[in-house]
Write a structure and sequence with these properties.
single chain, about 700 residues, Serine Threonine Protein Phosphatase 5, Tetratricopeptide repeat, six-stranded mixed beta sheet, three-stranded antiparallel beta sheet, elongated, disordered N terminus
Length: about 700
């Protein structure tokens, strides 16, 4: 499903030890872990359990010649689980016990032949579409879909992202008002499948289950004790030693675990090929978990291993047929995206249902999405809410966010803003950026809470700092308008640019307008064209029109009729009447194409049927003159009247002229005067043409003695 890989800050740590003189001695390469956000202290923290998962026997953290203390509560007792403050942007030294190398065992601290590049998946980093078995705990989350076009396509994500209704600017000079519901792109969210890593407790529970389920080999048991740190101090090197003995005797569980250790660089240098070898040994014995992991390795293309969706499907299917819920969920993702197999929503639903019935929390959330959207199954919001509830009650942050969306909109459940906020908060407290964004919206609108722009801006900023482009765009709106924050156009532009560079189509369009018109920014039409082009490529209608007009008329850019036609055609495919009318004008005038009155008439008719008064006026003129069509005065008058009824000043003037001269219509000076007066009243500010209308009406009045 759709990758929503929005990263929180990364903490870099380095294992060191102190020699007898107290000198700090670096021991290996750095390791990256992801801090957790602590809503109570409003800061990022590092869980000591995460450090222990990444390094062997850590003692304490050291920075700038000082020990970093564990955080304490109001009673001066260490908070549980143990934690320290995060220091993003610096390398924290983690002092460990003096290293040793057991005979015959590779140590990541002493190996000079292979560099360890271990990275640790931190609990709570919740972007993975499959989370029920050991396979997911050991595998980095795989992206579900690549495409992230919020305007012209369905968001192919299950769990998390809201469906975007883009701000509807009525003109290029309008900017979004955060309180204007026209600009509300949060009213109708589309949930999204994100990728979620597993928490430590989930990984330990899954691996302990594997240990408890009757794997009798003593070496394997001992190896798993060292691996998990159960009954003994966690020690990956000793774990590897014991597991290697069991694996060498054909123990499938030990072989699979060794594959995980080589893949993650735990107790051994990271080596994807060795990981594959051990997975293959276990998989060949029918070990479902290893088959699932092989499916992932081929799906991801880890390291220099070539990505191969067909092989990925083959291994996922083998594991799925043995009842591996994680593999079933991942196989459903494969069918959803059409990677290595034809896209098939029905089969995706089938596999999600199997995994969900086995308790896979991500599959439950994904199944909720399929019911909500009616993909591969009859649309049913009540069932969607049920599945979201199952996953949310187990702590799945994305499902909690989506359940909040259901309560906010009354989809499958009674509309209940308070209940929506409750679930948004649960997800937001886990660091879910979409829930944080949605909470910002609730505070901005005053839904279920007192309206509080400051709180709204705070939640938007939390999400924006994680790279959530929707929140970045909304925060930019706040800075532009001065709601909840001090008005700051520079910051607004910064956030719009962040969102625009992240692919947010409305931010791209907004920047195009700002640079074109010079709104509190140096006017730069070339930059405007660049931003318009980005938005236009994503299907943004107004960006296509604005950029097309710039190229058609050469407004501060090199005139380019072909580009203008291309952009107008893109907009016309969305049924836009203005684009159809402009294409008619270009064919009528031979701009960028061979002059073709018949094609001009076709485009004008498309626009005219949609109510475009300019196209209606042009059709009237072409039927009157017989250019591109057979001359037809009745048809000409019909289109002139349609345009005049819509306020077209030129059509009103022409109708007056036709009545005055008796052309196409019976001669009627009184009717002519009325049409000219209407034209004059509707165009008072337009200068000469208005004077002309007024003058004609005045002379007519004199002629027929109406005064």
């Amino acid at each position: 499903m759709l990758a929503a890989d929005q990263e929180r800050p990364v903490q870099v740590i380095r294992p060191v030890y102190k020699d007898a003189s107290g000198t700090i001695i670096p021991m290996s390469n750095t390791v990256c872990i992801k801090p957790q956000f602590d809503s109570k202290s409003d800061e990022y923290i590092i869980l000591w359990d995460d450090v222990k998962m990444a390094l062997i026997n850590p003692l304490y953290a050291w920075h700038e010649d000082k020990v970093i203390p564990f955080l304490m509560d109001d009673n001066s007792e260490s908070l549980q689980p143990l934690r320290i403050s995060a220091y993003p942007g610096v390398v924290l030294d983690i002092v460990i016990e003096t290293p040793r190398t057991d005979a015959g065992i590779e140590s990541p601290m002493t190996s000079s032949t292979e560099a360890s590049t271990s990275t640790t998946t931190i609990p709570g980093d919740h972007y993975a579409p499959s989370q029920n078995t050991e396979a997911t705990k050991d595998c980095e989350s795989h992206p579900a879909v690549i495409n992230n076009n919020p305007i012209s396509q369905e968001l192919r994500t299950l769990q998390g992202h809201g469906e975007l209704l883009e701000p509807n600017y009525s003109s290029a000079s309008e900017f979004p008002d955060p309180n204007n519901d026209k600009n509300d792109f949060y009213n109708h969210e589309q949930p999204s499948i994100k990728e979620h890593d597993h928490s430590v407790s989930e990984e330990r529970r899954s691996e302990s289950d594997e240990y408890d389920e009757g794997l009798m080999d003593e070496d394997y048991k001992k190896g798993m004790e060292y691996y998990l740190g159960e009954s003994v101090i966690q020690d990956y090197v000793k774990a590897k030693e014991c597991l290697f003995k069991a694996a060498s005797h054909g123990h499938a569980g030990a072989q699979c675990r060794l594959g995980c250790m080589y893949r993650k660089g735990q107790g051994v240098p990271q080596d994807y090929f060795k990981a594959m070898e051990w997975y293959q040994k276990a998989a060949s014995q029918g070990y479902a978990d290893a088959q699932n992991k092989l499916g992932y390795m081929y799906y991801k293309g880890c390291g220099s291993i070539e990505q191969d969706y067909s092989k990925s499907v083959e291994w996922y299917l083998k594991a799925s047929n043995q009842g591996n819920a994680d593999a079933q969920n991942r196989l459903a993702d494969i069918y959803w995206n059409g990677y290595g197999v034809p896209e098939d929503y029905s089969k995706a639903v089938e596999w999600y249902q199997k995994a969900a019935s086995l308790g896979d929390v991500n599959a439950q959330s994904n199944l909720g999405f399929m019911y909500h959207k009616g993909y591969g199954i009859d649309q049913d919001d009540s069932k969607a809410a049920e599945w979201y509830q199952k996953a949310a009650s187990q702590g799945n942050a994305a499902a909690q966010n989506n359940l909040g969306m259901m309560y906010r909109n009354g989809y499958g459940v009674p509309k209940d803003y308070s209940e929506a906020i409750k679930w948004y908060l649960k997800a937001a407290d886990q660091g879910d950026s979409d829930a944080q964004k949605n909470l910002g919206y609730m505070y901005q609108k005053g839904y279920g809470v007192f309206r509080d722009y400051s709180q709204a801006a705070e939640w938007y900023e939390k999400a924006a700092m994680q790279g959530n482009v929707d929140a970045q765009n909304r925060l930019a709106d706040m800075y532009w308008s001065g709601y909840g924050v001090a008005q700051d156009y520079s910051k607004a532009v910064e956030w719009y640019q962040m969102a625009g560079n992240g692919g947010h189509v409305e931010a791209q369009f907004t920047l195009g307008v700002m640079y074109q018109d010079g709104f509190n920014i140096t006017r730069d039409c070339l930059k405007a064209a660049e931003w318009y082009q980005m938005a236009a490529d994503q299907g943004h209608l107004k960006a296509q029109l604005n950029l097309g007009f710039m190229y058609q008329n050469g407004n501060d850019v090199a005139q380019d009729y072909l580009k203008a036609i291309e952009l107008y055609e893109m907009a016309s495919r969305q049924g836009n009447r203005i684009a159809c009318c402009r294409l008619g004008f270009m064919y009528e005038g031979g701009q960028g194409v061979a002059q073709n009155y018949s094609k001009a008439v076709e485009w004008y008719q498309m626009a005219a049927r949609k109510g475009d008064k300019t196209a209606q006026y042009r059709l009237g003129s072409l039927y009157r003159s017989g250019v591109g069509v057979t001359r037809d005065y009745l048809e000409a008058v019909k289109w002139y009247r349609k345009a005049a009824d819509r306020g077209c000043c030129k059509s009103r003037h022409v109708l007056g002229t036709l009545y005055y001269h008796g052309e196409c219509l019976p001669k009627d000076t009184i009717e002519a005067m009325e049409w000219w007066e209407m034209a004059s009243r509707s165009h008072q500010e337009s200068g000469n043409i208005s004077d002309f209308f007024t003058e004609n009406a005045f002379h007519l009045r004199l002629e027929i003695n109406t005064f």
